[in-house]
Every structure is written in C-alpha cells, then in structure tokens.
Amino acid sequence: MNSKRLLAILIVATFSDIAFSLQGFVNSRSWSTPIHTAATVSNGRQKIAGRVASTFGPDSPTEYLGSIQELEGEGHFHRKRAPNTLSYTDAVCKGEKYLGLIQQGSPTPPVFTQDDFKKGGWTEDSTFPQVIADDLKTPIQALGIPSAPKDIRRISAQQYSEFTNMNGQIQDDVSGAQFLQVYIPSATKGTIIASENVSPEQSIAMYRRENNLPQLTAAQLRDYVPNLRRWSDVVWFVWAKQAGNQAGKLRYIFRDNVVTAETKGVIDQMFGIPKGTLDLKWPGKTFDVKKTKEGKGLLGTAHGSGIAWLMADHKAELGERNLKVTVFTSAGSHMDQKTYNMLFELADP
Q: Which of 56, 76, 85, 80 has the alpha carbon at shortest distance from 68?
C-alpha cells in the first residue's frame, strides 16, 4: 500500500475531530485506479490504538475546508475558484438569486432516506467531545442556545464505505469526504454549527489540483460520487434524525472560523477595509438579507449557498423565514489577525 495514502487515511480516521485538511484521498495514478478502497479505510482505522480526545476547535486556517467552500447547486459541479475571484458586486447578484430561490422553494425538493444514506457510503461518527468552540461561547450564551453536553450532538457524516455512484453502479473508490457539525435540537433555539466539511467532489478536486492533475468533467465525476453528496442534503438528513419533530424549529446556523480568502475578501470589500483586518467582536454587525445589499452579498458567498439550498429544499418544514446574517470576529492566532465568523439566523417573518 502507498505509504503516503495510508498516512492520510490514518490521519483522518484518528483526528477527525481536529480540523485537518483532507489532502490525500486520490491515488496519484490514472483516475481508473482506486482513490482508496472501503477496506483500506476500515483496516487503517482498526490499526489505530485509540482516538485523540481533543477540545472542539474551529476549522483549520487553510484554503481546503469544505464548510467554507461548499459546492452547492442542483446537479452541477464547479471547480474551486482561485482566491478572491468573487467580487462583492458579484456576490450581491448571486445573493439576490439565492434569495429568490429561498422565497420560491425548490420545485422538486430532494428526499433522502436511511437507505440512501447507506447506499451513498455514509456512516455517522459521534465519538467526539460534546463541547462548544471557545470562540462561539459568547454568542451561544448571549442567544440563549442550550450548550450543556447533554444538549449537544457533535456528529461527523463520513463517506468511508462502498457506495452506489450517480450512474447506479457499485463503487469501492471512496473519497474520504466528511461533514462534521454540532447539532443542538431545541423547540425555540435549534442550532447547527458548521465545523469541518469536505464534500466528495472537493476531496477529489483538492488532491488533483495539488498534484497538477486535470480536473474531472461532470460526466467523469458521476462515476466517483453518490447522489447524496451536498452539504445541505447530508446535514439536513442528520439534523432531521437528531431533531425529530423539532427539525422545522431550526433557527441558527453558524459558520465558524471563516478562512476562505474569497469569502473574507467579500466581507472586507463590504466594510471597505484592507484585506484581513476586520475587528468586530460580538455582537458584530447584522444584515437583513431581504432588505440590505450587504445581506445579499453575504448570502452570495460560498458560506451562504449551502444555507440557501437547505432553506429552499426544506421550505415545507421550515416555513416562511426572514434570513439575517451577522458578521463578527473572535480572537485569532494567525499573524494576530482576528477570526472571521458568520451567523445565519432563520428568523420569524
């Protein structure tokens, strides 16, 4: 077995509760060879003596985290943009379209079952410390969101098993993708904290980009990703299981530790400040998406797209909502820069 590939698998299996970049999930040979097989992942995990129990932390400060580069869209694949290619003006235009989508709702909302989850090669791992990130403790407390260990469900949906691809064929070349969130069901304060998220497409694209390999076409990708692959679909599926009849009570979605240059660039342009200099501690600045240009610009970022699709696809459960976005910073550790954070509130109309 390729030692580099095994090392990458062991890192993800062992430290999935630490925000590492998922960079080594595709074999460096031609695409017809496996990325890594379900058996490889399983064997690698079994060889680990135990998990590292670390404190829950924000996303790693790299350009590779999927929670901040969500590939959303109705059946469309997109290559990752180069940093800072999305202007504030373009983000506003995208946000206007996403707002229209939310207001109209998806004409054919997807419905996924436990069988679909299994066929997609997904499994759930909840063996994580049930704690809140330090940089979110202040807003969590201020908003009255339940935060005791008994209230928190920190769960990673991981695509580590054999799956049925989009063409209906059994595929053993798993991507190693994962969607890790903190779920807090509540009758009035339902909350999701987006943590470490890398979609199947992103896991594949990252490795190929880093190794100077051509990106795959949409037709080629269909052989290596399942139908259940989007952040909005996987996260809602897990949320609905955890929240039960309170799923429609979802109120808050945090995007913790925004590190993508593109999203930060839009925020910096919006505030008219030099790159990476935002200093806006909680309660930050809140923008109504329907009423303000700034709110639409934030919805038009990579962080907003997944939330737009989640709201549009599940309009029947969520009902009419007035979406607001809060931008705030917390103490950072990267070159003394503050950490950018976003909170999407699905408020009552």
A: 80
